[in-house]
Specification:
With 196 residues, this protein is mainly beta. The protein is 11% helix and 30% strand.
Length: 196
Amino acid sequence: MALNPHLYGNGMPVAFVNEMFVLIRDGIEFEINNIHGANGGTVKAKGRVFLSNVRIVLVADKPTQIFTAFDMPLLYVHDEKFHQPVFHCNNISGCVEPVLPYDQNRAMYPSHSFKILFKHGGCGTFVPLFFNLIKLVRQYNQQFDSGNATHVDPLRAAHTPVDEMMNCAYVDPSDPTKIYLQQPASEAHPRNTYHS
């Protein structure tokens, strides 16, 4: 995870090298815990979510001094679940580990739990793409697993072949998710690392 990643003026995340944005979803609400400086350590905001072959980026509609966006590398996400409660909106919850330089002690930094709430429109496009992408990234990156899961480069996911998955996208007419058929034009050079 990375708090307040680099964004363009329009709120679009600055891409990493070989990163492919899959979709954008407006009109979501999200909750993230263990945010240093936030009231009670939890951020709750309305905004949008970007999904790529590398990460999920939650961007607040109304940024604050503490929080503008939250970046979750797909390789660091775990315990993700889709919930369809009877008396509340559909949501995805899970946990994400922090992205730290290799010389940092991971025991000093807790994981973050997150929840993405779909309060405006359906989620029949977003949910299958999200879970299929997580599955594809994990399968592709198992071939590189050296048993040292605590120091996996989150950008390794950028090499996951997602083109085939995008050729058979799911469409839910009640879901306002927008799928990128062509990559958005970038205003800057792609980033090479999380720590720049």
